[in-house]
Amino acid sequence: MLRTIRSDQLRPGMYVQRLSGSWLDHPFWRSSFLADAEAVSRIRDSGVPELVIDVSLGLAPEADAHLPAEAAPAPAPAPAPQPQPEPAQAAQPPSAPAAPRKGVANFENEVRNARQLLASGRALVEAMFSEARLGRAIDPDAADPLVDAVCDSVLRNPHALVSVARLKTADDYTYLHSMAVAGLMTALARRLGLPEDAVHAAAKGGLLHDMGKAVAPLHVLNKPGSLTEDEYSTMRRHPEDGHRLLLESGVDDAAALDIALHHHEKMDGTGYPHRLPGERISQMARMAAVCDVYDAITSDRPYKRGWCPAESLKRMASWTGHFDPAIFQAFVKSLGIYPVGTLVRLQSQHLAVVIEQVPTALLKPRVRIFHCTRRQARVLMRDVDLSLAGCDDRIVQSEAPGDWGLRDLEKLWLP
Fold first, then answer.
1. How far, CA to CA in Å, does 358 sit from each of 15, 115, 288, 368?
2. Cβ–Cβ < 8 Å for 199, 189
3. Residue limits of the HD-GYP domain (predicted)?
4. Closest-CA residue to 206 (of 318, 289, 118)
5. Measured between alpha carbons, how far is residue 168 from residues 116, 175, 207, 226, 262 in Å?
6. What is the reported pTM?
7. Is 370 helix (H, G, I), strand (E, B) or coil?
8. What is the dihedral of CA 405, 410, 411, 415, to 10 degrees?
9. Are 303 and 280 in contact, with CB atoms under 8 Å apart?
10. 41: which residues sit within 8 A by CB, 6+ positions away?
11. Torsion-angle region of residue 264: left (phi > 0), alpha (psi -120 to 50) or beta?
12. Is residue 234 located within the same domain as residue 349?
């Protein structure tokens, strides 16, 4: 039987079924667990105003513990998932309902939301990895609120989350890579015109695609140099490890299982683990192959700096036999020929950074001019929409920030 109580009424021995408020605001990964003294303290300190307890699985509030079950106040109207008791120490960072869908947001506003979402999502993914390393079954359903939040963010603005996620540090790569791929999968699925339930499945598959790395040796996973042949063989096992881990955790989501197992397959049959030819690779796995590689090569890693977004797309386009051409084309359209954050040279002999896409003119995004190549000097920054009818400037080519001594290019385009 479910009861809604204030957080100051919670005491050890009660079974917490659900926490109120946004999952971004409280410190728990799972919201269903048997509370001990530490969990009670953490919930009270988190500022969560109310929570739902299940008195059939734990203690009842003192005020009505003497009452027969039928006399207790009515349960909360919202149905709760079937409880699965677990020790309180399994409750880790965040989980709870996602924010409701909202209308289209401009890039700057959504970037602010994306930063908070990535910070909270990183904590959730790290907690899932920690559970797996300890030999515990993960709870993939606990990620659903995060998946909903990612889908909502990309719906409000398709470029904000994926642009911010690309800026992860090498230390954050393992966890934020999962968040980035979830965002890229969401944008790609919508570009392909998939129904919303398939969009959600693609996002969840992206979030869980690398769970096999949770059981990889940390000295190999975080190695700053090139891997030996044995170490590379170890890392190549992560698709099968992830598939097994998800199955052992009770995952029956066909898309998530397929993505975990086959996101490193290639169209020409040279991928791993099963060297599947293109016609045997599912659409979801083909999508994940593109999204996984793009985020990997554009991110800073322990052993290399990431490539610029436009150069990455150009190189990926040249890899014959690697990607499904139709899916790759849709992926490029979802990001833009010159993704947000790309350094470009203009016909007017200026350097600029791309700050926003124009969906109807992929070669003519909005840019922020900041440097004159002719005078080799900074200029007063100004924003230009290259797609406007009266604009006679255009992009000549993308540039490598390192060639111009630019190490913090994001400071020019992030709000």
1. 50, 23, 25, 14
2. yes
3. 152-347
4. 289
5. 13, 9, 16, 20, 25
6. 0.76
7. strand
8. 160
9. no
10. none
11. alpha
12. no
Both 319 and 364 in one domain: the answer is no
Distance in angstroms (rounded) separating the CA atoms of residues 211 and 72: 43
Question: Is-contact 28 35, C-beta < 8 A?
Answer: no
Is 100 within a domain? no
- Same domain, yes or no, for 387 and 272? no
3-state secondary structure 285-346: HHHHHHHHHHHHHHCCECCECCCCHHHHHHHHHCCCCCCCHHHHHHHHHHHCCCCCCCEEEE
Whether residue 206 contacts residue 184, with contact meaning beta carbons closer than 8 Å, is answered with yes
Structure tokens at 371: 């440097």
Per-residue pLDDT reduced to its tens digit, 360-380: 999 999 999 999 999 999 999
Domain boundary among the residues 312, 335, 358 is at 335
Residues 144 and 255 in one domain: yes
CA 226 to chain centre: 26
Kindly give the interhelix angle for 325-335 and 283-298, rounded to the nearest 10 degrees: 50
Whether residue 84 lies inside any domain: the answer is no
- Is the domain of 117 the same as that of 221? yes
124: left (phi over 0), alpha (psi -120 to 50) or beta: alpha
> What residue numbers bound the domain in which 384 lies?
343-412
Contacts of 394 (CB under 8 A, 6+ apart): 346, 347, 363, 364, 386
Same domain, 179 and 300: yes
> Quick check: is 236 in a domain?
yes
Say if residues 157 and 107 touch (Cβ distance below 8 Å).
Answer: yes
The pLDDT-based confidence of 323 (bands split at 50, 70, 90) is very high
Q: List pLDDT tens digits, range 223-262.
A: 888 889 999 999 999 999 999 999 999 998 999 999 999 9
Record the tokens describing residue 10, joined without a space: 């919670």
- Establish if 126 belongs to a structural domain: yes
* DSSP code at position 349: S
- Nearest alpha-carbon partner for 162 in 145, 138, 179: 179
The answer to whether residues 324 and 348 belong to one domain is: no
Ramachandran bin of 54, using left for φ above 0, alpha for ψ from -120 to 50, beta for the remaining angles:
beta
Structure tokens at 221: 């996973």
CATH number at residue 115: 1.10.3210.10
3-state secondary structure of 202: helix
Domain count, the chain: 3
